Amino acid sequence: MKKMHTLILVWIAMGLILASCGGAESGRKLVWADEFDKDGAPDSTRWGYDMGDGCPNVCGWGNNEAQYYTSNSKNVRIENGMLVIEAHHDSLGTKAYTSTRMVSKGKGDWLYGRIEVKARVPKGRGTWPAIWMLSTDWSYGGWPESGEIDIMEHVGHDPGVIHGTLHSQKYNHIKQTQKEGKITIPDSQDAFHVYAVDWKEDKVDFYVDEQLYHTVTRVPGDDFNGWPFDKRFHLILNVAVGGNWGGQQGIDESIWPQRMEVDYVRVYQ
Questions:
Q1: Which of 13, 47, 99, 129 lies at 20 to 30 Å from 243 by C-alpha?
Q2: pLDDT over threshold 70, residue 252
Q3: Measured distance CA(238)–CA(87) in Å, rounded
Q4: How many angstroms separate the first and last alpha carbons of the chain?
Q5: Residue positions annotated with a catalytic role
Q6: Chain segment 2-32, per-residue pLDDT in tens
Q7: Mean pLDDT of 66-92
């Protein structure tokens, strides 16, 4: 009987642990994932690419960034069960660096859910990795009208500080009204961590390794100008170089190549 009681307690404890995990929330199912378990090019049924330097519309991708995005295996590949996005100091076009910006647009688009990405960020001044989301349909207009969800941003000149942010027409970094939170993860450049958002109708929670560090709740009375997060969004994974934020303290030309590694992407609804 004592052994049976012990087993029951173990089962209860396991249930509580699972219930505390965002992906295992009651009634929530895994609806989209990439485990990056096959070496070579990323799965083309899940990922596309934004290419070039952003010209002619928003050169430098709107942030005066120093990289030219490619889909070349030098810049993006799966190896040893990890997605690698690697920036190199090698000129292409008018840019001194190359890197990759992967997008799930048209292949993974969601309205609400929990998005989890397990990743390790690059090191060094001038690196600017991001795990983020943009509107798929741009129903409310161009940026920032249709919104932006930054699951994780890190700039190399401020090592270990992880940012999670919402942008909209009313609240954005140009106006310095963005809805931003941050947390210090000292080993984020050396170890893998799970970066996640739990996106609901009127609230977005930001997590690192199940630790809630930032919540943005819809302001009563705000229309789409303040809360455009009621439309489909897609996921973006990229490593930028320099730019208005990533290059605030210049670019260390001696550190390249630098890579962001991703163990998995999982989306629950």
A1: 47
A2: yes
A3: 9
A4: 40
A5: 148, 153
A6: 444 443 343 434 443 443 445 556 689 999 9
A7: 98
Parse the chain into domains and list their residue ranges: 28-268
pTM exceeds 0.85? yes
pLDDT digits (tens, 9 = 90+) for 114-136: 999 999 999 999 999 999 999 99
Query: Which residue is listed with tokens 């920036």?
Result: 87
Q: What length is written for the chain?
A: 269
**Is residue 246 within 8 Å of residue 240, measured between CB atoms?**
yes
User: What residue spans of the chain are helical by DSSP H?
Assistant: 2-20, 243-246
Class of 28-268 per CATH? mainly beta
E-strand stretches of 105-223: 109-110, 113-120, 127-135, 148-153, 161-167, 179-184, 193-200, 203-208, 211-217
Sequence letter at residue 234 = H
For residue 202, give the amino acid letter.
D
Q: What is the mean pLDDT of residues 199-220?
A: 98
